[in-house]
Amino acid sequence: MKGYIVLENGDIFSGQFIGEERTDVFGEAVFFTGMTGYQEVATDPSYRGQIVIFTYPFIGNYGVHPGKDQSEEWHPRALVMGECASDGYHYQSEETLASHAEKVGVPILTDVDTRALVKTIRKSGAMGAVMTTDPDTVVWNHYTSIEEKPLVNEVSTSETETHGSGDTHIVLVDFGHKKAMVDALCAHGAKVTVVPFDTDLKTIQAFAPDGLLLTNGPGNPKQLEEQLPEIKAAIMQYPTFAICLGHQLIALAFGGDTSKLKFGHRGANQPVLEKASGRVDMTAQNHSYVVDKASLEGTDLVVTHVNVNDDSVEGLAHKRLPIKSVQYHPEANPGPEDSQHLFLTIFQMIAEEKEVTIHA
Amino acid sequence: MPKKTSLRKILVLGSGPIVIGQAAEFDYAGTQACLALREEGCEVVLINNNPATVMTDDTCADKVYFEPLTLASLQSVLEKERPDGLLATMGGQTGLNLALAAHESGILERFGTELLGTPMSSIQQGEDREAFRSLMQALHEPVPESTIVTTSAEAVTFAAEVGYPIIVRPAYTLGGGGGGIAKDEAELETIVTGGLEASPIEQCLVEKSIAGFKEIEYEVMRDANDTCITVCNMENIDPVGIHTGDSIVVAPSQTLSDDDYQRLRSASTKVIRALGIVGGCNIQFALDPYSDQYYLIEVNPRVSRSSALASKATGYPIARLAAKVGLGYGLHELKNPVTAHTYASFEPALDYAIVKFPRWPFDKFMDADRTLGTQMKATGEVMAIERNMQAALQKAVRSLEINLDGLKWPGVDEMAAADLEAALTNADDRRFFYILELMRREYTSEHLAVITSIDRFFLDHFQRLIAGEKRAEATSFAELEREQLATFKKDGFSDHWLSTCWGMEEAELRDYRFREGIIPAYHIVDTCAGEFEAETPYYYSTYSGRDEVSVNDHKPGILLVGSGPIRIGQGIEFDYCSVNGAQAVKELGYEAIMMNNNPETVSTDYETADKLYFEPLTAEDVIHVAEREQVEGVLLQLGGQTSIALTEALEDAGLKLYGASFDVIDQLEDRGRFYNFMQKAHIPHIPGQTGVDAEDTMAKARDIGYPVLLRPSYVIGGQGMSIFTSEQALQAYVEAEDNRIAYPILIDAYFAGKELEVDVITDGSNVYIPGIFEHIEKAGVHSGDSIAITPPYDLSDTHKRQIVTYAEKMARQLDFVGPFNIQFVLSEGTLYVIEINPRASRTVPIFAKASGNNLIEQAVQLLLGYDWVQVFGDKRGLAPETSYYAVKAPVFSTEKLPGLDPLLGAEMTSTGELLSFGETKEEAMKQAFAWKDGQMPAIYEKTGSIFYHIAGGQQAACEPVLKALEDMGFTLYNTETYAFDDWLEEENGLLYISIPSAGSREFASERLAAERSRKMIVTDPKTLHELVEARSNKHEVRAAETWKQLDLADEKV
């Protein structure tokens, strides 16, 4: 049936809803430029509360595959696209994207001029949006912006889980992690204990980890301000690697600041320059917030990676402690695997730390 | 890394004349590279003997050598120029092979020339089968198992190891002849035994078959700093088994999951890093549709046809950036010219569909084997961009110019389903259309997927086309609702087809659409799916979305219509004309707006004109752009027959055209009107009449007198032309059931005289003629297939003057401004006009290169209103002759097209042409015959035996040459002295002379046999004469500029 996405600025784009009539759905409208990976996007907790617009016009072509979900749930409030494939054209496909979305209750709006929509967001910035069948009756006070919304508690694990059985024990502090992170750590020989985002230092110490991984997650890092002292205490004690939201929290913990990008980086082609080698990797990204470069002055953090396009901060390292972080997603899924090697960083930091301890 | 400042002077290798598999894409790559190098302050020296190219313009290179692509030429140029660097990865396989030979001979080292970009060791590793295989093994990257066998037992042993099916490829056979796919041991034995017999070296490559796998390509770039990006990936709709050049291809891949995509992407970057490539590289994969298994099929360590396609598909200029990376830059130091504020170290994101469709020559070569396989047969290709797959496919089909209305191949509806199915398993160029026909007959995608191995994703999209077709046929214009029409347009149906379907005038439907606001919007190709602001005006039309065009209010726009896909008779020369036209239009202060659909070309580089519209070139598409841009007018003279053919429709649509009205063009192209015009102008023309049916044709032929030439009007490349020397021969032809004659047909007298050709520019009263080309072969051989030389070596001043007089007369009596081309035959002292082409011609770029006359620039100036004196000053008539000779010679791709008779005739068969210079005619001729290493006439390299079949009437003309050959030490055989089949086996059999009587195709089976045995074949007494006479000539390598200076020096004397 005919449907609309209405933006906070009043712009209206029409399309066709897949499935039955539904009540209005609110979210922050953001766009994803990757040409594959819709299933991973839909199950990435960082998209919590957002309406994801796919710039690539053909979505769903290869269906939904077993084992590719990045979490238990679908997180975006809705998906907006040009066409949604009528079948899953792939030997691994178990279900079409449309039927799965229907099952999990996430509306899909197709036949949308996504290019014009994306250009509007590019010009005016990410903003609130509503998916509706009647643009005249939208009531905006149903909408809370991402900035003001605590989202991490909705996606973080409530219980402790353990994966893998390696010798190196890593505690993964879950702000809304993607499964591929756990997989990558296990593949490199780790035992991974996933703990809730608000786990205190004592509890972490009780696991006797070799190192920590702070994960990605949805929303504004400043929503977690209260927790910064606990986070700082933990990371100062253990070799720590952090990704995305985790990276932003490290900056905040050490006195840096974060701000919101106009429309974020979401896709599979963000070029990141590693300053030490001069080499550029293609990275998978999904973030609205970014660490302010200027705010790092006088802190103990140094910028190790920058975005080639807009020079934004993509990686940090602590000047003395074994703490490193990146804004992008080395676990890929979806996106290029160029930065997979970064998962070795945590193991290297742990190994060096052990050596220091032994020699000391 | 900053650029290397030691590289001041760079030698660039071109790819030479167009052959199948190596077409305009290397002019695009080469032009981009030359411009990029000059932008960096380098001096560019170029070797390329293809004159119909933009890269050989003096705006691209500082010095151009139109020299054979041989090691000897390269050595001379290195010695003369002492370049600091050599760029070898822009000239296709030809350039790469030449660089390899140079490296092996040590001359690069000797002259201190550094190879730019990808190091030689990488090229060798990519090219050498064994080295590549062992590298892949070291990287744990899978390659299909294969081995070389000389007995069928070896093949059977190999198959037992790797399993069936097995592909058998006999070594050195034409078009993979003698090979096949074996499903079991019995089949394998049969095929290998046959293959070994077919192979001149009795060798076969046997390979584990991966036919039916998805064929996926990645275009990868790497800089010396080890940054790697994949610009684009592409998926062949036709799975492995059909050459990618003959496959319908989409970009990006459509049926790969993110896992698949990234797995192949990671493999690509791993391989390019291991090879150490610096620049661009193409990697082809086969991916099992039912598992994760993939194989690396091929790595091309250079830019390629696919990289040109990827550049146009994404907007990312691979060749340009590869050249800069070759100078030492890192990708992150180079701006992405599309956005102008992001960098080249990123991967384009697309928000549209790309479809590439090959253009095959079988409309001309009806006797050639149309089957598609591992040997590429397409001469060109088109690309289409749209927001949905249906419309992209429709645009692609429309761009092919294969005389289809809509999606129905003529005659398919009469074929039995079983025959259509059979034709799908043995795929040929009509495969897509056969699939559509079976869909019309309710075949399901599932069923067709089993028959074709094409992914159901694509088949389901094809089904949408047929569903749309049926919906359109089931409705009428009277019942039509606005939204329905909008949907038909969204799905890409043309007004032409819809209006035919609904029995109305196309213009009526168009008017309705315009009133209802159902018009296309134009989107920008921006490399980034809208993420960043883009500055490059590179557009495509869509019925799904909002318009993004900004019309220039300050400058009037001129729309230039390009020439579409490369095909026989309409090659890269018209792209040269379009590009030069755009430059001239810009210089005159207009906004140059280019429209074309050929992804290989320079004209579709968004930096060529002020704006580029990548669109089909039908009247509907052109009118849309003209309306959207509110252009002042449309230039049709530069895009060959493609654009000229639009004259009537655009005129009817009320658009301003330049130079000539449809009536004037019709006056020249309609033979009946043409003869009347010539008679009125008192210019002798070849006597001719029009036959309306078989009987009438016979009667008119009798009137004219034999021999006669049959020709349809409005054709390019002499399609359907043939000569008949007797009433019996013509009778047999017109009565034959499969004669393919479309009446009315033109019957001309055939005068076997000397053929002459001129290009003329006129303002309607004055003429300028840059030179006269004298053809070597007699009239009757298509002008595109004959060797031509300028200045003429055997033409009296009287006749030269007469040519000018005739040209002036025509110009004055025609209401025409711009370039036109006249072909004459000089028979028994009388000069007759054969035909006039009211447009830029094949020879225009040759004059530009041979004597520096840029006719296109001058023509555009006249067309846009400059007067004669402003353009030419006091120049009129025939330009002074050069002191040196320039030869234009055709190049054929016959070896790629099994079954095609290499006999020269009235139908054009060559795919490309070359230019050579000499102080004497013989010197220039020799460079034309010996144009490339590996293509040397064997009689130039050694002595041996020659076999000849010469028809009675031709013997006298050949005798002196045969005598000369004997004197040179060759052994001559004919049927009386030796068995032809035995001679074919002889290693020392160097040349086959096969000259039938005029109009006859006798000895055809011998020619085909000689072709299979890779013997050089000469079929015309004049060609033979020149070949032999040029044999022992010496040649000095000189840049084009040096030749021109010699000329000036001569003039001063």
Can you describe this structure?
- The complex is a heterodimer of chains A (360) and B (1053).
- Chain A has 360 residues and is an alpha/beta fold.
- Chain A folds into two domains: 2-148, 3-Layer(bba) Sandwich (Glucose Oxidase, domain 1); 152-359, Class I glutamine amidotransferase (GATase) domain (Rossmann fold).
- Helix content of chain A is 22%, strand content 31%.
- Chain A is built from nine helices and 19 strands.
- In chain A, the strands form three sheets. Chain A has a ten-stranded mixed sheet with strand order 10-12-11-13-14-19-18-17-15-16, with helices on both faces.
- In chain A, strand 1 (2-7) and strand 2 form a beta hairpin.
- In chain A, helix 7 packs across helix 8.
- The longest helix of chain A has 17 residues, at 343-359.
- Chain B has 38 helices and 39 strands.
- In chain B, the strands form seven sheets. In chain B, strands 27, 28, 29, 30, 31, 32, 33, 34 and 35 form a nine-stranded mixed sheet that branches. Chain B has a seven-stranded antiparallel sheet with strand order 14-13-10-11-12-15-16, sandwiched between helices.
- Chain B has eight domains: 9-116, Rossmann fold; 127-139 and 211-348, 2-Layer Sandwich (D-amino Acid Aminotransferase, Chain A, domain 1); 146-208, 2-Layer Sandwich (Dna Ligase, domain 1), CATH 3.30.1490; 357-516, Carbamoyl Phosphate Synthetase, Chain A, domain 4 (Orthogonal Bundle), CATH 1.10.1030.10; 523-569 and 588-647, Rossmann fold (3-Layer(aba) Sandwich); 659-685 and 751-881, D-amino Acid Aminotransferase, Chain A, domain 1 (2-Layer Sandwich), CATH 3.30.470; 687-750, ATP-grasp fold, A domain (Dna Ligase, domain 1, 2-Layer Sandwich); 918-1029, Rossmann fold (3-Layer(aba) Sandwich), CATH 3.40.50.
- The longest helix of chain B is centred in the middle third of the chain and has 19 residues, at 456-474.
- The mean pLDDT of chain B is 93.
- In chain B, helix 1 packs across helix 10.
- With 1053 residues, chain B is of the alpha/beta class.
- Classes of the chains: A alpha/beta (360), B alpha/beta (1053).
- Chains A and B meet through helix 3, strand 15 and strand 16 of A and strand 11, helix 9 and helix 16 of B.
